[in-house]
Amino acid sequence: MGKLLPINENLKVVILAVAVATTFWFFNALSKNYDKIISYPLVFDFNRDSLVVVDPLPSEIRIDVSSGGWTLLRKTFWFNAEPIKIELNNPTDIKFLTKSSLRPIISNQLKELKINYLLTDTIYINIEPEERRTVALVLDSTFIDLEENHRITSAITLTPDSVTIIGPRSIIENVRSPYFLKLDEEDIDDDYDEFVNIPLEVRNIMSAVPARVNAEFQVKEFSYISYDVGIEPMNFPSDSSRYLSDPQAKVSFWIEKSLEDDISFSDFNITADLSMMQKRDTTVPLMLMFFPEDALEIEIDPEFIKVLYAQ
Question: The domain 130-217: what is its CATH number?
């Protein structure tokens, strides 16, 4: 009876046998011919100066090929594959490449492979001349989000006040001047002094010089105030045969909160002139003759007041 090998020795023998069999199978398989669909790297060769690639160019192309296993293995290792080079002599004039135009280019560069057919039907090309346009900048105040009861109290300044937009011709031709900026911040309740990015329609193919500008303006909190103010009659008879239905009117306005204590009802003067009476309803308009210059959006309630006749 023969001597048994130790378990470790048996395992080594099995592993060696599997390795030999696998190697034999591998080399035998590589000696055969195969049909295979491969994705092959692709590069485009053209002078990129003053041009913009609007839509990304494909980086690979799918091909059905036939070849020996060794050649196929070598060609399908991407780190070893020399990309197919497609030259574009007039890139802005070429809009697409069809199978019929691609096949000879590919066949010429992959001579060791038989090209059966292309799975990629058409390659679309969208390359445009680069254009530049300098435009004036404006910060759109209607889209500035302020905290409740806050207002902008100064001119809005942008530094610099113009920018050069760079991009493909089809987009730059439609850029208008002035060029409007918007703020992303919400509930602004203090003086603003920040850098604002120049908004671009398509950032990956457009740029701005400079890329951002400084926006600055002052913001104050305002208070809404109402006073009852006496009405001064004008051209009314001294015998009081005609008189106003109410001796007072309400004046409402906005003012900076910091100035609220510096103002009173006596700073306002309202008159009612009998000579302006509307005969159809015997009312006269109320006229605001004097008011503080810091008061904003002043309203008088009522706007007209009735004239009464003594019995």
Answer: 2.170.120.40
The pLDDT value given to residue 15: 57
Architecture of domain 222-309: Beta Complex (2.170)
pTM: 0.70
Q: Are 263 and 223 in contact (CB under 8 A)?
A: no
156, 217 in Cβ contact below 8 A?
A: yes
**Is the pLDDT confidence value at 117 over 50?**
yes
Sign of CA dihedral 251, 255, 259, 261: positive
pLDDT digits (tens, 9 = 90+) for 120-160: 889 999 999 999 999 999 998 888 999 999 999 999 999 99
Q: What is the DSSP letter of 235?
A: S
Quote the pLDDT of residue 70.
54
The answer to whether 41 and 113 are in contact (CB under 8 A) is: no
Coil, helix or strand at residue 259 = helix
In angstroms, rounded to a whole number, what is the distance separating the alpha carbons of residues 157 and 155? Answer: 6
DSSP H helices in the chain:
7-30, 69-76, 99-109, 169-172
Task: Tell me, letter by letter, the H, E, C secondary structure of 172-189.
Answer: HCCCCCCEEECCCCCCEC
